[in-house]
Amino acid sequence: MRVLGVDPGLTRCGLGVVEGGGGRAVHAVAVDVVRTPPGEAVAQRLAAVADAVEGWIAEHRPDVIAVERVFAQHNVRTVMGTAQVSGVVALVAGRAGLPVAFHTPSEVKAAVTGSGRAGKEQVTAMVTRVLSLGAAPRPADAADALALAVCHCWRAPMLARMAEAEVRAAEVAKHHRARLAAARRAR
């Protein structure tokens, strides 16, 4: 599975592609950060991010896009920019026919470091180690994008099995309810 991880941000948007094999084997394909100038109009900045993501999709052919889920922060401007970039990334992915998976920061940290409260340096160190990189990806947005992709590679099989189990459980429950209703009618 090839995953494009996106750490959304209006000033710096991290992009990282990771290839996952069986089990926990993963390797980095590419990583970069898209920067947009704060003095530019928001529409132009969002268009620049959209163009970059479209280019990465065309070049790296991911199977899925993993995006960090927007979470509440004290800085409303930061949250707005992050949410806008997330929406643009989801739109670009949808137009390309790619599924989008959202992961919370604590899910990503827990998957990569074992602790949902890990700091940025710990995440960067583990991403560097897990992907056998020669140097730590900088800035942190680049490391976070790779961490998102790794998290999805590791979590996707479990999430798929859980979804299948929920479908089977719903089918069994429906069948059981039908049998109960039939038994009540027969009385």
TrEMBL record:
Active site: D7, E68, D141
The enzyme's E.C. designation: 3.1.21.10
Name the record gives this protein: Crossover junction endodeoxyribonuclease RuvC
Subcellular location field: Cytoplasm
Protein function: The RuvA-RuvB-RuvC complex processes Holliday junction (HJ) DNA during genetic recombination and DNA repair. Endonuclease that resolves HJ intermediates. Cleaves cruciform DNA by making single-stranded nicks across the HJ at symmetrical positions within the homologous arms, yielding a 5'-phosphate and a 3'-hydroxyl group; requires a central core of homology in the junction. The consensus cleavage sequence is 5'-(A/T)TT(C/G)-3'. Cleavage occurs on the 3'-side of the TT dinucleotide at the point of strand exchange.
Similarity-based family: Belongs to the RuvC family.
Known catalytic reactions: Endonucleolytic cleavage at a junction such as a reciprocal single-stranded crossover between two homologous DNA duplexes (Holliday junction)
Major subcellular site: cytoplasm
Matching PROSITE patterns: RUVC
Keyword Lipid biosynthesis: no
Organism superkingdom: Bacteria
Assembly notes: Homodimer which binds Holliday junction (HJ) DNA. The HJ becomes 2-fold symmetrical on binding to RuvC with unstacked arms; it has a different conformation from HJ DNA in complex with RuvA. In the full resolvosome a probable DNA-RuvA(4)-RuvB(12)-RuvC(2) complex forms which resolves the HJ.
Top-level EC class: hydrolase
GO MF annotation terms: crossover junction DNA endonuclease activity; DNA binding; magnesium ion binding
A GO cellular component annotation in the UniProt record: cytoplasm
Binding site for Mg(2+) 1: D7, D141
Cofactor section: Mg(2+)
Native source organism of the sequence: Actinomycetospora cinnamomea
Alphabetic keyword roster: Cytoplasm, DNA damage, DNA recombination, DNA repair, DNA-binding, Endonuclease, Hydrolase, Magnesium, Metal-binding, Nuclease
GO biological process entries: DNA recombination; DNA repair
Residues reported in the UniProt entry to bind Mg(2+) 2: E68
Cofactor binding remark: Binds 2 Mg(2+) ion per subunit.
